[in-house]
Every structure is written in structure tokens, then in C-alpha cells.
Design brief:
The complex is a heterodimer of chains A (114) and B (115). By secondary structure, chain A is mainly β. Chain A has strands spanning 4-5, 10-14, 19-25, 32-38, 45-51, 56-59, 62-67, 72-77, 86-93, 103-104, 108-113. Chain B has strands at residues 5-7, 10-13, 19-24, 31-38, 42-50, 53-57, 64-68, 74-78, 87-94, 105-106, 110-114. Chain B is globular, with a radius of gyration of 13 Å. Classes of the chains: A mainly beta (114), B mainly beta (115). The interface between A and B is medium-sized, with 26 and 27 residues.
Chain lengths: 114, 115
């Protein structure tokens, strides 16, 4: 049972345009959502997070949107840069003492073309 | 550089053997987490330790065990290895236990190949 799904295995975007990565989840008890970026031969790097009490969080070029009724979150990157090319994972947590027990999606490979 | 150090980077061993993976968390981090990334399962939570005590468990096999030492480094022991245990094993650390302002920081992983 895959509780967190990233339905797009890959996304290709032109430099300077917006990248939108999507993630759906099934467990309504998830309380905290995160996005991680991963380059080859490296571990996942934390990008941005959002609590279930919010519907938007911004950090520089990165914005995460949460739609609880649709059980959907998205990551917007504006403007996209070639250095953003990586695998992006969304993750969810039940919070509380299970805060660090993250359930990850399968990842989306983002390619930003110069 | 996340500050989380994992050794070794690569490990090749045979079925039935036992290996130990080591993780040093970021300075000041009390929580250590172990995750497994396999081709078919993606990144999966195995176990968490907080200040030396087991805090949470995921779908960790009984053949696997972990511990966190007084200096806060952690070891993941994998025994009676099977071909299906071949995967990337990531360690992560965070400052606090159960705090939204303390995201997990991951090491670069140990790639285990069981032949």
C-alpha cells in the first residue's frame, strides 16, 4: 500500500520557467509534509516543509502548496535553473513521536534544460 | 555536506554473512534514523534512536538490528544476508525528537551488494 505517490516519474522544463512537482497521499492522519532533493551518489537534501495547518509555505524560489481536501501537495520552483536537475521526493509524517518516520514517494526526476 | 557521515560507502558481501554499517550524526543532533532505499520499494524507514534509546520502528526485519552509542554514533547490523537486502542504506539525524523545526539531514548512504 503506497501511501505517498508521485505519479510523474519525470519532468522536463526549460530554464527560467516554472517547475511543478506533484504528490498525492492517502493517509489523512499525515500531519507534516516535506520535499527532499537528491543528486546521484548523495543523500536526500531537505528543501522545504509544510505543516497540515497551513496551505502554503515559501522559501526563496521554492513554494509548497497543500490541499488537504484533495490530499495533494505540490512543489513549485520559480524560476527553474539547470542546477535544480535532480530527483525530488515528497515525504509525509504522522507527526508527534512519529515525526521522523517519513513515508516517501517514489520520486520525480526533474531535468531543467539551459 | 549534510554533516552526517556514513561508512563504508560501498560494501560487497555474500549471502548468509553479517555486516555493520556505521553512522555519525551531525554535531549536536540527538536523533538518528535509518532508511533503506531499494529499487522496488523506494526509501523506507527502518528505525529511529533518540539519545541512545529506540524511539520508533518501521518495517525492519528481525535479522536487522541497530543501536546508538553514548557518543551518539549509530550502527546498523544486518545478518543472515539475502540477495534482496542489496540496497542503499541511509542514515539521517535531527536535533530534536518530534519537532517540526528540525528536519532530517541525510548522509550519503552505504551501498550494500549481496552476491
Amino acid at each position: 500500500d503506497q501511501q505517498v505517490k508521485q505519479n510523474s516519474p519525470s519532468l522536463s522544463v526549460q530554464e527560467g520557467r516554472i517547475s511543478i512537482l506533484n504528490c498525492d497521499y492517502t493517509n489523512s492522519m499525515f500531519d507534516y509534509f516535506l520535499w527532499y532533493k537528491k543528486y546521484p551518489a548523495e543523500g536526500p537534501t531537505f528543501l522545504i516543509s509544510i505543516s497540515s495547518i497551513k496551505d502554503k509555505n515559501e522559501d526563496g524560489r521554492f513554494t509548497v502548496f497543500l490541499n488537504k481536501s484533495a490530499k495533494h501537495l505540490s512543489l513549485h520552483i520559480v524560476p527553474s535553473q539547470p542546477g535544480d536537475s535532480a530527483v525530488y521526493f515528497c515525504a509525509a509524517s504522522l507527526g508527534g513521536t512519529s515525526y521522523g518516520k517519513l513515508t516517501f514517494g517514489q520520486g520525480t526526476i526533474l531535468t531543467v534544460h539551459p | 555536506d549534510s554533516g552526517v557521515t556514513q561508512t563504508p560507502k560501498h560494501l560487497i558481501t555474500a549471502t548468509g554473512q553479517r555486516v555493520t554499517l556505521r553512522c555519525s550524526p551531525r554535531s549536536g543532533d540527538l536523533s538518528v534514523y535509518w532508511y533503506q532505499q531499494s529499487l522496488d520499494q523506494g526509501l523506507q524507514f527502518l528505525i529511529q534512536y533518540y539519545n541512545g534509546e529506540e524511539r520508533a520502528k518501521g518495517n525492519i526485519l528481525e535479522r536487522f538490528s541497530a543501536q546508538q552509542f553514548p557518543d551518539l554514533h549509530s550502527e546498523l547490523n544486518l545478518s543472515s544476508l539475502e540477495l534482496g537486502d542489496s540496497a542503499l542504506y541511509f542514515c539521517a539525524s535531527s536535533t530534536l525528537d518530534g519537532n517540526y523545526n528540525s528536519p532530517l539531514h541525510f548522509g550519503n548512504g552505504t551501498r550494500l551488494t549481496v552476491t
